[in-house]
């Protein structure tokens, strides 16, 4: 683990989201371990909103701060805690969480996802659409069919609307997206070998 965290970013591809200013680097691709896990390094600029409160139905995440302080909301709305460099928090499947950087300095952390599922495709798609100017000013895809496909890949449920309503809506939009071949519009953001996972 220490070896992975000491890798310099010029050895790995750093992708910058031009809308949010976030940067991501895939440290351990799920393609290298049969989908068991993915480990991604994120750099959030000062004031970054991070993610809304959400949870994953089958995937756990472990957040580890490398530099700076990461604010995390864990377990329920309003339950904030601050992780400092060297600190980690494990978020089991089903546990609500969000993160942000409300400080005046950059924060760097890793997210390890087990099992990886389609999380890499989700994050690569979100960044790719931002680079191509196909997101709103908050960084969310403007095409609802693309958004639904990405949320399904990330095994993500937003806190608020009932889960069954979200699943019904997302699954319906994903089916329409498949009929219309919308996934092809996202293929360019993914490597050849993970396009159908």
Describe it for me?
With 197 residues, the chain is an alpha+beta fold. 23% of the residues lie in helices and 30% in strands. It has helices at residues 2-5, 119-131, 144-153, 163-180, and strands spanning 14-16, 23-28, 38-44, 51-56, 60-67, 69-74, 80-84, 88-91, 97-100, 107-114, 156-158. Strand 1 and strand 2 form a beta hairpin. The model is unreliable at 1-10 and 192-197 (pLDDT under 50).
Summed up:
About 25% of the residues lie in helices and about 30% in strands.
Major sheet size, sense and barrel closure: 6 strands, antiparallel
Which series of helices and strands comes N to C?
HEEEEEEEEEEHHEH
What is the number of E strands?
11
Please state the average pLDDT score: 89
Outline the low-pLDDT stretches.
1-10, 192-197
Total DSSP helices: 4
| Structural class assignment | alpha+beta
Arrangement of strands in the largest sheet: 1-2-3-10-5-8
Radius of gyration: 16 Å
Distance between the first and last residues' Cα: 26 Å
Q: Which of globular, elongated, flat, extended, rod-shaped describes the shape?
A: globular
Features:
disordered C terminus, 4 helices, Cupin_2, alpha+beta, QDO-like, disordered N terminus, 197 residues
How are the SSEs placed, and which strands pair?
Elements (H helix, E strand, L loop, with lengths): L1 H4 L8 E3 L6 E6 L9 E7 L6 E6 L3 E8 L1 E6 L5 E5 L3 E4 L5 E4 L6 E8 L4 H13 L12 H10 L2 E3 L4 H18 L17
Antiparallel strand pairs: 1-2, 2-3, 3-10, 4-9, 4-11, 5-8, 5-10, 6-7, 6-9
Organism: Nostoc parmelioides FACHB-3921
InterPro entries: Cupin_2, QDO-like, RmlC-like_jellyroll, RmlC_Cupin_sf
Protein name: Cupin domain-containing protein
């Amino acid at each position: 683990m220490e070896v992975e965290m000491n890798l310099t970013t010029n050895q790995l591809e750093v992708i910058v989201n031009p809308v949010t200013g976030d940067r991501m680097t895939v440290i351990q691709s799920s393609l290298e371990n049969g989908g068991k896990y993915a480990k991604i390094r994120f750099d959030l600029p000062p004031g970054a909103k991070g993610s809304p409160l959400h949870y994953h139905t089958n995937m756990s995440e472990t957040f580890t701060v490398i530099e700076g302080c990461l604010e995390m909301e864990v377990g329920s709305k309003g339950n904030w805690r601050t992780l400092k460099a060297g600190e980690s928090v494990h978020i089991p499947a089903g546990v609500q969480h969000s993160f942000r950087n409300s400080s005046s300095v950059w924060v760097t952390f890793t997210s390890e996802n087990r099992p990886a599922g389609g999380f890499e495709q989700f994050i690569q798609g979100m960044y790719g659409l931002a680079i191509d100017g196909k997101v709103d000013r908050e960084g969310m895809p403007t095409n609802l069919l693309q958004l639904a496909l990405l949320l399904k890949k990330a095994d993500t449920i937003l806190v608020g609307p009932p889960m069954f309503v979200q699943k019904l809506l997302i699954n319906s939009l994903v089916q329409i997206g498949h009929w219309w071949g919308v996934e092809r519009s996202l293929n360019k953001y993914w490597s050849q070998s993970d396009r159908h996972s």
